[in-house]
Request: fold
Amino acid sequence: MNTTTRKQKIYDLLKSIETGDSAAVAVISPDTYIQHNPETHEGGEGLAALFKRLAKTSPSVNVVRVFDDGDYVFAHTRYDFSSSKIGFEVFRFEGDLVVEHWDNLQERPSEPNPSGHTMIDGPTEPSDHDRTVDNKDLVYAFVDDILVNGRMDTLAAYFDGETYTQHNPVIGDGLSGLGTALEEFAKQGIVMTYDRIHRVLGEGNFVLVVSEGSLGGQHTSFYDLFRVADGKIAEHWDTIETIPPREKWKNDNGKF
Reply:
């Protein structure tokens, strides 16, 4: 199956949350589907029932970006149910069917961030496909250096000065915005740690990194999407989600 068709199938699948279209759920393998959202029951049949139930609440689903990397398709989406959330969805294909799924969701704030950006605005179409591997290596090195190991002396090398657009709800543009936010976190006693990088996916100039760590002492999943321009990190979107305790999981597959 070509990647354009896979992307379309994932777009249709996510939109079926809004439409209730049961045919779109046929892309999910009924026999081998592995669900990593700890609050969702296992299996494609459970997913179809969930989507059908959600469709009755008149939800809105805006699929903003869809990318592919090998057997993976990943999407950046706004969901409006009883509350509004921003999510990253990652799907793994085997042939024509999705056999595995991960996601990360965060409540969408009502106001833009200090630089006037929302969690989803900005460029949506990938370019520089011939640089995918280089861009993945760059972003992996940044997350490993700065977020996992705290090598702050290398920070400036990853950016083109202040040319950096930030979509995190509480952080402004540029390295100065990042520095201000980190200082504020420290004042409030908020400790954020990245302990492990689980997955790096990319298409062209867009790279998604899935990491595990903690925020404010709570077990946390971090999904960070970066746009790279001319070998430097130029833009960043993210979602941060607290992982529920093991006894509250509805399946046994783990978040990652």
About this structure: DSSP finds four helices and ten strands in the chain. Residues 3-111 form a domain with the Nuclear Transport Factor 2; Chain: A, fold (CATH 3.10.450.50). The two ends are 26 Å apart (CA to CA). The chain has a mean pLDDT of 92.
